[in-house]
Amino acid sequence: MTAPWTIGRVLTWAARDFATREVESPRFEAELLLASALGLRRIDLYLRHEQPLNDAELQQFRGFVERRRRHEPVAYILGLRAFYNRDFLVDARVLVPRPETEGVVDAALEALAKESEAPARVLDLCTGSGCIAVTLAAERPRSTVWAVDLSPGALAVASENAAKHGVSSRVVLCEGDLFGPLDPGLRFDVIVSNPPYIPHAVMAELMPDVRDHEPHLALDGGGDGLDLVRRVVAEAPGWLSPGGRLVVEFHYDQGPAVKALAESAGFASVKIVRDFGGHDRLVVATLG
Q1: 144: DSSP letter
Q2: Would you say residue 1 has pLDDT above 60?
Q3: d(C-alpha 282, C-alpha 37), whole Å
Q4: What is the DSSP string of 59-93?
Q5: How high is the pLDDT of residue 24?
Q6: Could you tell me if 117 and 180 lie in one domain?
Q7: How many CB atoms sit inside 10 A of residue 286's CB?
Q8: What total of structural domains would you count in the chain?
Q9: Rounded CA separation 26/10 (Å)
Q10: What CATH code is carried by the domain that includes residue 53?
Q11: What is the mean pLDDT of residues 47-67?
């Protein structure tokens, strides 16, 4: 008699399978996928360790496993990714939000600490899923955030996330190239951006999860990775209010180059902020 496919047995099988395919966190990812397939919390997998799966549940989970075997990101399979203690809808139209990008939010919130004195205007360039724009609107309820992206698909996802988190009335979605779709009279207290910054030659070296599934439009930053970063930094002073702040994410080895760009653009104060791994990750520049 064949042993039943219990939660514990299925979880062990999937974790071993992922390990043979060099999945970075095989057990953790198996838990996430199985919990989603069964509509349970991860802890429930252990509380119900001996519970057998029915045919529909097995089929659903095996479908998830097959997708992960093809290196599709777990976030796309689940349709969600946690960012700044909120769940964001994601799919192949947008980058998967990264933990290091939460530093962009931290730096922007610091600049908006005195928002209670007056409503703030924030601009998020290359918004993608809208994780930064929506988070800032949620964290600063008197702010209005303009969110720009070249991809209509990305903006559709950002719109869904703004609605999901109840900030649609304060997130203005704009389709176009960086500052292009904005009213020339607008001025912002903070401009943030997580633009494409991977050098073109490095694209082929990325992990297959990223290289084969995430949108290259949101990754490829040109020859040295700084094509869009240069434009953002150079044009930002004309869109900032006096004393306004620019926060831009970049590749870990681009810090000195981005700092020099900001200094050349006329920012009075420019500092590099490191991520949780100790790598240069953000430039925070204040207009005099």
Answers
A1: E
A2: no
A3: 37
A4: HHHHHHHHHHHTT--HHHHHTEEEETTEEEE--TT
A5: 86
A6: yes
A7: 16
A8: 2
A9: 13
A10: 1.10.8.10
A11: 95
Which residue carries 């509509």 as its tokens? 39
How far is it, in rounded angstroms, from Cα 162 to Cα 134?
6
Closest CA to 151 of 178, 170, 190: 178
Q: Are 23 and 68 within 8 A, CB to CB?
A: yes
pLDDT (tens digit, 9 = 90+) per residue, 211-262? 999 999 999 999 999 999 999 999 999 999 999 999 999 999 999 999 999 9
Judged against a pLDDT cut of 80, whether residue 117 lies above it is answered with no
Distance CA 15, CA 13 (A): 6
Q: Determine contact, residues 185/162, Cβ cutoff 8 Å.
A: no
222, 246 in Cβ contact below 8 A? no
Position 82 in a domain:
no
81 assigned to some structural domain? no
DSSP string, 168-232: GGGEEEEESSTTTTS-TT--EEEEEE----B-GGGGGGS-HHHHTTS-GGGTB--SSS-HHHHHH
Q: Are 136 and 107 in contact (CB under 8 A)?
A: no
Same-domain check for residues 206 and 263:
yes
Residues 54, 101, single domain; the answer is no
Q: Are residues 129 and 180 in the same domain?
A: yes
Query: Would you state the structure tokens that stand for residue 252, as one six-digit string?
Result: 């870990």
What residues make up the domain containing 200?
94-286
- Mean pLDDT in residue range 147-162: 98
Tell me, yes or no, if the pTM score tops 0.85.
yes
